[in-house]
Task: structure prediction
Amino acid sequence: MGSVRMTAAALAAGATFFAYSAQANGTLNLICSADVVICEQLEGAFEKETGISVNMVRLSSGETYAKVRAEARNPKTDIWWAGTGDPHLQAASEGLTLEYKSPMLAELNDWAVKQAESANYRTVGVYAGALGWGYNTEIFKQKNLKEPTCWADLLDASFKGEIQIANPNSSGTAYTALATLVQIMGEDKAFDYLKKLNANVSQYTKSGSAPVKAAARGETAIGIVFMHDAVAQAVEGFPVKAVAPCEGTGYEIGSMSIIKGAKNLDNAKKWYDWVLSAKVQSSMKEAKSFQIPSNKSAEVPKEAPKLEEIKLIDYDFKTYGDPAKRKALLERWDREVGASAN
Result:
C-alpha cells in the first residue's frame, strides 16, 4: 500500500515537474507586420521547435512603429518581424531598438547585411519585394479597360473609383509608394500626381496588402501593392495580374528588430536567429509568401517576381528612413491628399 502511495506521490511530483518544464522556456511577445497567414505559420513552427510560447499580434508596420514609440518607457513587445524597412530604420535612429549581430549574418544576401550596417545592427533585412500593382483581369475585360503599365497610366479617367491603395500613415507599403514617387518625380510633382490619382482612388486601406485582396474579390479593379502580394492572389486562383511600372519602382527590404527593453531578450534572439535560417525562409512559400528571402541558401519561390527583370530605382533608405523626413512627407500627404480623400 505504501509503495502505491509513493508511486502516486512520485507521479504527482513528476506531473508537477513536467508542467514546469513545459513552461520553462518562457514566452515571446512578437509583432508581425507581414500577411497573417505567414505570421501564424511561423508562430506555430517556432513554438513547436523551441517550446517557447509566442504571443503574436499582427499590425502593419506604420502601426507597429507608433506602438513601439508610445511604449518606449515600458515596452510590451520583444521583437518586431517583417514590414517595410523604413519604419524599422526610423525606430533604430530613435534608439527604440537594440543592437544585435546575429551569427546568421554571414549567410545573408548583401542587401540584408547593408540594411543591418546602416542601422548599426539595430535591424536586419529578412526579405525583399518590388512595388507595383495587381489588377483584376475579369473586371478589365468586362469594362473594356486598358492595362496600366506605367505610373502615368493610373491617372486615366477610365480608372475613376477603380483603384485602392493603403494610407501611408498606417501602411509601410503605401509609405514606400509615396517615397518612391518623390524619388522618381521630385516632391512637388509627386504630390501633383498623388492629388490627380486621388480622383481615381475609391479607398485608402489600413493594410498594405488589402487593396489587391479587394481586387481579387472583384471589389476594385486595381490594388497598388508590393508585387509579391499580387502574385499570392494569382497563385490562389484569383484573376489577378501583377505589373511593374515602366518608369521604375521602389522596393522594400522587409526587416526585423529587437525592441530596446525587451522583457524576453534571450527568446527574442532565438527567434531572430531562427527566422534568418535557410530552412525557415524556404518554408515561407507554403504560406503563399512570395518575397525574395534574405538567406542566400533559402529557396526562392518560382512564382516570386524576378527583381532583375524589374526597373528598380536606387531607393534611398537612409533619407526616407529618417523620422523627420517621414513626418514631413506624411503631414504633406494629410494636407494635400488625405484631407480631400474620397
